[in-house]
Amino acid sequence: DVKVTQSSRYLVKRTGEKVFLECVQDMDHENMFWYRQDPGLGLRLIYFSYDVKMKEKGDIPEGYSVSREKKERFSLILESASTNQTSMYLCATRLAGTDTQYFGPGTRLTVL
Amino acid sequence: AQRVTQPEKLLSVFKGAPVELKCNYSYSGSPELFWYVQYSRQRLQLLLRHISRESIKGFTADLNKGETSFHLKKPFAQEEDSAMYYCALSRPGGSEKLVFGKGTKLTVNP
């Protein structure tokens, strides 16, 4: 059973703060993804990583960066949080060569 | 460009009625298509994929290349089907990123 965990369920930060969202998986999946989920906009891909130390921009990377130093951990970084980054953030993983993504429970981030 | 359109933000039906959630896509080739579902307070999960032509929880979806559609259907809706449904597309190959539609919130009334 794939287990994908995210460091916080709810997070409240102030404008300008540096924010770290962590995602950890225990199934040795090569691929990891960060999405944001907004009502009426669906899921939008921020960044993804095919393997350790590899990263690629998704559709909305502006204002975000990522880090993948270990296979099991994929971090999303908001360098200077802004109110328009208030959202639900979802992490997902996938075994390379397969088509199913497994999602974490999400982190609801509020930037005041 | 790859694009997925779910024309209905909200869909409400009564228990026992048929339900169809619409999905249209834009892609110049043969995409792989999926339906993901998110029940209340649960994580997003795969419901079904077109390539396996399976029925999951009574739901089926047929890829219509002529109409570029992948509508999700169930003949008799149940209250536990109430959820957020997302249609998604990827290029074939198994290692491509997914493009999601904006989602349809289905409510099945008693």
Q: Helix share of residues of chain B?
A: under 10%
pLDDT under 50 segments of chain A (min length 5)?
none
Please describe the biggest sheet of chain B, giving its number of strands, its sense, and whether it closes into a barrel.
6 strands, mixed
Q: What pair of chains forms the biggest interface?
A: A-B, 26 and 21 residues
What is the oligomeric state here?
Answer: heterodimer
Structural class of chain A: mainly beta
Weakly predicted, low-confidence segments of chain B: none
Distance between the termini of chain B: 41 Å
Shape of chain A: globular
Mean of all residue-level pLDDT scores of chain B:
92
List the keywords.
heterodimer; A: 112 residues; mainly beta; seven-stranded mixed sheet; four-stranded antiparallel sheet; 11 strands; 54% strand; B: 110 residues; six-stranded mixed sheet; three-stranded antiparallel sheet
Can you put this structure into words, describing what you see?
- The complex is a heterodimer of chains A (112) and B (110).
- With 112 residues, chain A is mainly β.
- Chain A contains no helices and eleven strands.
- Chain A has strands spanning 4-6, 10-13, 19-25, 31-38, 42-49, 56-57, 64-70, 73-78, 87-94, 102-103, 107-111.
- In chain A, the strands form two sheets. In chain A, strands 2, 4, 5, 6, 9, 10 and 11 form a seven-stranded mixed beta sheet that branches. A four-stranded antiparallel beta sheet of chain A has the order 1-3-8-7, with no helix packed on it.
- Chain A is globular, with a radius of gyration of 13 Å.
- Chain B has strands at 3-5, 10-14, 19-21, 24-26, 32-38, 45-49, 60-61, 72-74, 83-90, 99-100, 104-109.
- In chain B, strands 2, 5, 6, 9, 10 and 11 form a six-stranded mixed beta sheet that branches. A three-stranded antiparallel beta sheet of chain B has the order 3-8-7, with no helix packed on it.
- Chain B is 0% helix and 43% strand.
- The chains are: A mainly beta (112), B mainly beta (110).
- The A-B interface holds A 4, 31, 33, 35, 40-45, 48, 50, 58, 90, 92, 96-106 and B 6, 9, 32, 34, 43-46, 49, 51, 86, 90, 94-95, 97-103.
